[in-house]
Amino acid sequence: MKARHQAALLALPALVVFGLFSVVPLFSVVRYATWRWSGTSEPVPVGLANLSRLLGDTALWQSLGITALFALITVPLFLFLSVAIAWAIEGVRFERFIKALLFAPGLITVSGSAIAWYLLYNPDFGLLVELTGFALPWNSQPAAAMAYIVMFTLWQQTGYGVLVASAALRGIPREVKEAARIDGAGEREVRRHIVLPLLMPVLVFLSVIGTVFALQAYTAVYLLTRGGPFGSTRVIGYYLYETAFERFELGYGAMITLFVMVLTLTVAILQAMAFARRTRAAVGA
Amino acid sequence: MILMRTVTTVFCIFVAVPLVWLVYAAFIPAEAIVRADLSTFGFSLENFLALPDSGLWQAMGVSFAATGTAVLGQVLFGLGAAYAIRNGLKIQAIILALLALPGELLLVPLYRQLGGLGLLDTLGALILPFMASPLVIFLLVQALRRLPWEAVEAARLDGAREHVIALRVIAPMLRPELLATSVLAFASHWNLVLYPRVMTGEALWTVQAFLVELLRSRPFEWGLLGAAALVASLPIIVLFVVFEKRIVQVFESGFG
Fold this sequence. Notes:
The structure holds two protein chains of two kinds. Chain A contains 13 helices and two strands. By secondary structure, chain A is an all-alpha fold. Chain A has one domain (54-284): MetI-like (MetI-like fold), CATH 1.10.3720.10. In chain A, helix 2 (12-32) packs across helix 13 (250-284), helix 5 (95-103) crosses helix 8 and helix 12 runs antiparallel to helix 13. By secondary structure, chain B is an all-alpha fold. In chain B, helix 1 crosses helix 15 (222-253), helix 5 crosses helix 9 and helix 12 (175-190) runs antiparallel to helix 15 (222-253).
């Protein structure tokens, strides 16, 4: 019993850090959300003014829509690419090399990656336009800008997805597939009815991870498009940053923080529920 | 199958081109760019020689100090917390909740709080809030659950104190996992972009802030940009290459 108490003490440093720099800010943000505050000025309490502003803020709702659109494009593509590539390279001679290549963008530091993309895809003088004459006009056309952020995110993250999917594929016993083939199932059926259902838990895991990646796209947006053109890539995280630290409205920024927190929590709970339901379904099937 | 092979090939090219181009750009001689003539192959180190004047070393120093200290804290405190959880301390729910919370969401309240503590514009702002990480704790708890527990019981019978057990008995057994989580923790702190941009000024620019500014102020100097991006990535590349096997092992063991 004494050992257990002693051991519990070892969690103290981490808990102090979390308490001071996560829990305290989490609660104090509620108070800051009632301020008008530029970051340097003295805060002025304004009651619920920030909340009513939030409800009528069309830019906020637009950026929510952009975030959802971004996730709806990116996550399915991420899932498809992860599984399709893991599938295609299973047992191929270059499997290890391809995995290393796909993982490599994760090793370039993020701003360095942004530089690489800038040198390649800049519509005015990037390598792509110099060599082919084709340019992706991400600085002038909203759809191209969205495609640009999606491509960059997939470029960065798909290697990890392939790694996970490929580990899961290898975990499927050969006998299961053999048995189905002996029973007369064609390759397509084996894939559809044996392998895919067995991959379900991993697909769910990857979609959760993919959603997290998608919600963190504000870094890519900051580095590549700064939310433009015309706010077309202003995902919610970037809108929060921009409001607080480029327009210096930290009080309203705190209100947006609160809003995003509630939203994140809701999505996380919904996903956890879906996860529980699907695993139950997979086990039952 | 043909479809998937095609998808794979196209995607591999899509991934490789920016990487190859970045490395190539880092080594092209400056005059090749001025002449806008990329067809003649050139190789030169002048871009790297120009880096010291740009202020990159200063930024690398700041990043190393901040990231190194934070990783040390995350692993040490993470080991303690994971060990406590394995011994029955019921705080997993808190860890999971923190895990679901994206770190940079707290920019606004942290800005206020660090200001109140007088930590804005100091190394402390880059380090203290990152001294513990829910992800590291989560991964180490998973790893601890796979360890046989007899060694711990034996050490207890010998009268060893708990922090000694954690450091002398557990840590050596967890070496691969500790290394892998350290590399992950290093990469994620090294790659912070918005946080340092908000919390510190020019004197304490991290590598990320430096690169962003370099791209903004000298967008036409491809060679310099490429060289800076490569050098700034070196720490992660080296760590990964050295520990590649262990990292992949730890990754895959969690999902196999």
